[in-house]
Specification:
Blueprint: E1 2-7, E2 10-13, E3 18-26, E4 31-39, E5 46-52, E6 57-60, E7 68-73, E8 78-83, E9 92-100, E10 105-107, E11 111-116
Parallel strand pairs: 2-11
Antiparallel strand pairs: 1-3, 3-8, 4-5, 4-9, 5-6, 7-8, 9-10, 9-11
Length: about 120
């Protein structure tokens, strides 16, 4: 089994910054990608950012590119999301995920990010 635990959410004013962190434990030796999704009230869960361990390749949603930065440590199975220039529309529950070479995916329980205008 794999457990993912997020931290770092909270309330911030528009234009501010937050840093989310996620740590994976358990059977993690075959992860190949970790990242973040988010879900705002009344909306579907959407991709935010991810990092692939091979080559350190990162990917971002258009809505966050240039403001958010994803980073991670393969050896420690951790991933972080630095969020700058936050906007009210970034308000959502942010979920960490880990994808394995087997195709299995695991998710954290989420952390709330609220951006006030």
């Amino acid at each position: 089994q794999v457990q993912l635990v997020e931290s770092g959410g909270g309330l911030v004013q528009a234009g501010g910054s937050l840093r989310l962190a996620c740590s994976a434990s358990g059977r993690t030796f075959s992860t190949y990608r970790m990242g973040w999704y988010r879900q705002a009230p009344g909306k579907e869960r959407e991709f935010v950012a991810a990092i692939r361990w091979s080559g350190g390749i990162t990917g971002y949603a258009d809505s966050v590119r240039g403001r958010f930065t994803v980073s991670g440590d393969n050896a420690k199975n951790t991933v972080a999301l630095q969020m700058n220039s936050l906007k009210p529309e970034d308000t959502a529950i942010y979920y960490c995920y880990a994808k394995f070479t087997s195709g299995d995916e695991y998710w954290g329980r989420g952390t709330q990010v609220t951006v006030s205008s």
